[in-house]
């Protein structure tokens, strides 16, 4: 059997991290077993499913590196096929027409509740002859649900899950306007797409029992199910806005790397010994459903931030420099030409060592694209005393002539200068850093000057020196 998994989001204009994790698990499971990962856009709610909402999904998945192996299937294009299955069940007597009006259904629910019963459909038309209905009356199609016994679903995460059939009613599969309901569409699509494993959030567990009813009626094999426990906020409550970012786009904007978010989401609710930092290849090699825990996981933003720092330090400098340039583009105080881009890349090893996010990284690189006269933050201003400005003037003479203008030569020159004038290295380096960066933090001063290049360093020192 070739494993075929699918991610089946409804386009709501948001790729929630819970969904992104389901996509990741489907992807990894398929890859681990040499199978295929598919995407189905559940866009039957035509009002919400705008092109923009679909694009948000595609962008988010592409950013996470979770592109499907086949063309995405759009559920809305398959309604005729869904209806065909409903009519087949009708023809077989496995489903029936229900002529109850909305008012009658409402009364039925109210009566059930008044009698202390759950508000389910009571099977009024289950065994009635359709000729009893008023001619031309609209009808829905309901599946003939088993009434006795219990339904079991072997779940690869939750174990065997059972529900008494008496707890399920004859659900509608085709609405009065002839459109299929969601439960029918999912089953028909999963069957037609040859899906072998349905891996999704455990908020779909009750749906699975309803869907299993359709599989059984059609005589189709059930796929294997794996229901993933949900992601909660740090306080154990349902993840919501007040806990912080929840959508993949928000994390991207906040400067997270996709590797870090993937790694974090994988580790959230799945474990393999102590393995913490896992590359995509390692994830594929190690992932299986038996490592998925049964209880809800709690989002730990601090841990994600830590992982992001780890992944930033491992990331390629040119790639980070491109991302930083993109984040700096459009800032009024920053010019982004090839020279500035080259400076950013040159200083990247030092910059990324200190950053936790790409936003920090862009902030700390911004000085590389500024012009004289720089603006100085309060701490930098304080360091630029008249004495310091005089000292910088002297230092500039040395820096003007050293060859080559690279980090080791700059370092040696600064040490020589400090020694010659009876200063500690920091007494020279700190005002110098203030003068060339406008702040008191930057990577090593030698690497910082080397990245700026001699001309720029001379201009920046010149604008403050006396
Ligand atoms: N479209 C459903 C959702 O976004 C998922 C359905 C499924 O995975 O079966 O929640």
From TrEMBL:
Segment forming the signal sequence: none
Q: Which HAMAP family match?
A: Glu_tRNA_synth_type1
Q: Identify this protein by name.
A: Glutamate--tRNA ligase
Sorted alphabetically, the Gene Ontology BP terms of this entry are:
glutamyl-tRNA aminoacylation
Assigned EC number: 6.1.1.17
Where would I find the Aminoacyl-tRNA synthetase class I anticodon-binding domain in this sequence? 328-462
| Annotated source species | Gluconacetobacter johannae
According to its record, what are the GO cellular component terms?
cytosol
Which Pfam families does the annotation name? Anticodon_2 (PF19269), tRNA-synt_1c (PF00749)
